[in-house]
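User: Watch each token:
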Amino acid sequence: MKNDGKVTVVEVLAGACGFVTLVKAYRTSAGEAVIQLESDCDSVAALNTDAMSPITVRDLLKTDRSGNRILDEVAKVVQHPSCPVGIAIIKAGEVALGLNVPARVRIEFKDDSEEA
């Protein structure tokens, strides 16, 4: 698929596993994008991005997690349910298609002595 030359890149630092993943989303038309992944994680590297491509606006805005084809494809190969790569794919797709702005997403554990 031809892309329009713009790429959205998201770096995922997954946490305790220590793996780093780059999610690249290329807009191919007004409502579609393709995803490429580079990862230290063998499971993520094995992810079949062709089965997700093209990602459409509908795929990105589907709020029901069951039946979301992006998250379903990730769940086929990534055995850890809290792996953030699936959400990173969705976020990259949103930005690539102009549905969202690039903004930092964080999950931080606070020390018991810190106030929430």
About this structure: DSSP finds four helices and four strands in the chain. The chain has a mean pLDDT of 89.
